[in-house]
Write a structure and sequence with these properties.
about 100 residues
Length: about 100
């Protein structure tokens, strides 16, 4: 049952962002968008890992207490990992503003 609920929540949270209005004329901009999309996808996966360790019912302060050691072990900053956790919960890239993206 836990796996079914986890998969359902993951499916809801990982809804793809809306596509850009039109294709950019500049191929460099197209490549940059692809790189940003890849970074966001990887960050979402990291956020899911953070949620496994510090579930969504924990506040950022309580999650920071739990995640500090993990962040040190994987070489990530706590701020970036908390932002990734918020992004995995909300699916909104604005959660990453000022940290990763």
């Amino acid at each position: 049952m836990r796996a079914v609920v986890r998969q359902a929540v993951r499916d809801v949270r990982t809804a793809p962002p809306p596509p850009p209005a039109g294709p950019p004329a500049d191929p460099a901009l197209t490549e940059l968008r692809r790189v940003v999309d890849d970074l966001a996808a990887t960050t979402h996966q990291l956020g899911e890992l953070m949620l496994e360790v510090a579930p969504a019912y924990l506040s950022d302060t309580a999650a920071a207490d739990v995640l500090t050691l993990l962040c040190e072990q994987i070489g990530e900053t706590l701020d970036n990992d908390l932002a990734a956790r918020r992004y995995a919960m909300a699916g909104d890239r604005r959660a990453l503003h000022g940290t990763i993206l």
